[in-house]
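seq as requested:
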Amino acid sequence: MRPEGKAAGRHRIGAWEISSLLVILILGFWFRWRYAVDVSFFVDEYLTARAAQKILVQGVPLLASGNFYSHGLLLSYLEAMVIGLGGIEPLAMRAPVILMSMAAVWLTWWFGRRIVSPTAGIVAAALLAMAPEAILWGGRVRMYAPLQFFVLLATVIFYFWVVLERDRSLYRVGFVVAYWGALFCHAETMLLLPLWGAWALIQRGWRWCLRPANALVFAMSGLSVVIEVLLRRIGPPVQARVAPGVLEPLSRQYLGFSFDGLGAQKALAPVFLTPTRIPITCLVVAGIIYLLLTALRSKTHVRARMPQDRQALGYLYALLLPTLGLLLFAVDPEWKSPRYSIMLLPHVFLIAAGVLVWLGRWLQASLTRRIGHRASDSAASIVATVTVILIVVSSWPSALAATRESVPRYDWALAYVRDHQQPGDVIITFLCPAAFWHLGRCDYLAIPTDFSGFAFQKDGKWVSGWDGVPILDSATGLKQALAEARCAWFVVDEGRFRTRYDAEFQQAAQEGMELVAAEHEMLVFLRCNSP
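struct tokens:
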């Protein structure tokens, strides 16, 4: 690694660091921009777009059911501003997410150089810029890239405020703002607040925590959690389909201790166990072992003798490991997905980069003893440059694949309907928000067998909680809707139709309708009755 002291934040930014950072930022932006330009809206992006539309009309994302759509609330309001300014094209709507994703890359570099070294900052930023999941979610109109940025920002501010004991009003206010931003991107941020509170209590003590200014910070942060929980209680409970024509309230828990081996594997494997991530995982594990051995050898208070870079990585571990444990074993099953660990991806890369620098310093010391200081400096610079090149080269295939992610083209299918429909035609689809976005209307929501979402009863019938359109969840209901319509369109993606609708529903669609278009993972059925 590059020859650096431990107080890395004092180092001037040299030509090597500037040029490396520029390349990383350009590559990171290029991959995210390519995704935004080349890939159609992912299914969930239409939900954010529809919430933004409702904000423009009502001022709040209140659904027809009376439910308040707080999921990604901050982004919904931001997208409402974009739409209000005329930005209805996918690239315009994705631009804020791209910028926040790139801000996370920059902040990763800056924090890495402050807590460990310039090399650590560059390596961690390169890993985040080229991470396929960061590219994918950094180009989608969903809340995960903004969540990643705000969580990292809160992590950085807390480090200076509490860990380095810099008691400044700017840090206190900044932490509250960053935490509110993260919490109103996604509710999973509530997992981090107890960890920050525990660190503050252990390091600074009760008296410091109970000082009015500090207590207010944690109270205001906790208030955001209370508001989020209360917003989710507005309106009827989420309904789940338990049988044809039967929907019952679904009790969703934020925390519920359970062991789910498949869920754990699904959440962990893409982040830690892919071929390109195994070296990173090994570095993270090696860092844990090193810190534990160092602590065991210490005869005095660990924090008092611990160098700043080691203390900083210990702080990152204290956030990462418990949160991963909670995400794997103690949260709602719907959170057991790689997308919910993306908020801690910079932390993983910062830890790995920090451990790599430690190894580099050991190598530098060894070379200094053997071949002299000048030779070791040259070797360290070469190793640092080669490391960044290896990250880019090894990550390139998966990063490029992320920009070519295959998603069902609801935009194409609904454009086909728009070009061929006649006045009075009925629109049936799995994704009503997409139909409203592209066609301005939707007549029926065709829900799959595993439906659990917004729904409520109106005139004795179940209707969509998003827009109040009737729900079809059985072959009988579909046949009745087809019989009553002059012409009816059914738009659904092939994957869901084949795997998430029962055989009777599939048969009713295939035998009662004509498949008029089937491209881009989409199926478009049409049924016209004789006058």
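Confidence is low (pLDDT under 50) at residues 1-9, 300-304.
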